[in-house]
Task: structure prediction
Amino acid sequence: MIQITKNIREVLDNAKLLEKGNRSPIKIRKTITGMTNDNYICALSTGEQFIVRFPGKGTSDMINRKDEHQNQNSIARLDLNTEVLFFDDDSGIKVTRYIENTFVHNPSIYHKIPYVCEGLKKLHNSNTHFNNKFCFFDKIQLYETISYDLGLILCNDYLEIKTEILKHQESLHSKMNWQPCHNDPVLENFLMDDNAHIYLIDWEYSGMNDPLWDISSFALENSLSEDEEIYLWSCYLDDKYPTPNMLEKIKLFKICQDLLWYVWAKIKQSQGADLLDYAEMRLKRAMLNYDTIQLITTTL
Result:
């Protein structure tokens, strides 16, 4: 912990968040959320609190920090992200203003859904343009290349499902609605302050994508029940229900997401992360949804 404290003080010094020569105590607490990075809540003697992020091992191969930085700057006007006080493009180290998250006081995800949709719609409808695209077919190729370079073997079940998905690449691309997307909308990435203001944090995977990816991902990542997912779509689509073509795209996106994060988890596991159960869960769920492939047509 002594080394971590030293590293954090150095980061805060570089960010000009400590007065020169200030050696007052800094209280540090590591957060329990986040699978990609190490995040620390840092409280100064002045009462100010920050989040200092140190990227996890191997993330430089999978995440473009310059894209992340540019995208954060692009959406700053939306008041959707927490205030970014320092960002190093080379290391990926970041400092943001700490927000006391009142979301955690309400255990019901059902009551959080309208606020989640509020944040995602603000992003999707903002006319913001990101210079990068988050495309499943490109990402899966990147992650496979990394995994093979590490000497990993991806199982036949994964390869079989991915082969079927690739058959729909051209059709899916022709129907994509490219809008600014977050692409990692786990519940932990949504915060709410005392004024019921919604924040969306951690923009590492942000890029232009289809908004249906974000919504279907939120349903999948948070294991929504059927009723909760119906409510999610109702909130996002203003009391409407997805069209048949939208539903088929959603089914495909969910399988893509499980395949993508399965390979991601295998890479992280090879680097020491305890993600064996997580990787197996993602692949098993993709296999369970495999039969929906037969329902997907070229009318996507």
Notes: Strands lie at 26-30, 37-44, 49-55, 84-87, 94-97, 179-181, 190-192, 198-200, 207-209. The radius of gyration is 20 Å. The longest strand covers residues 37-44.
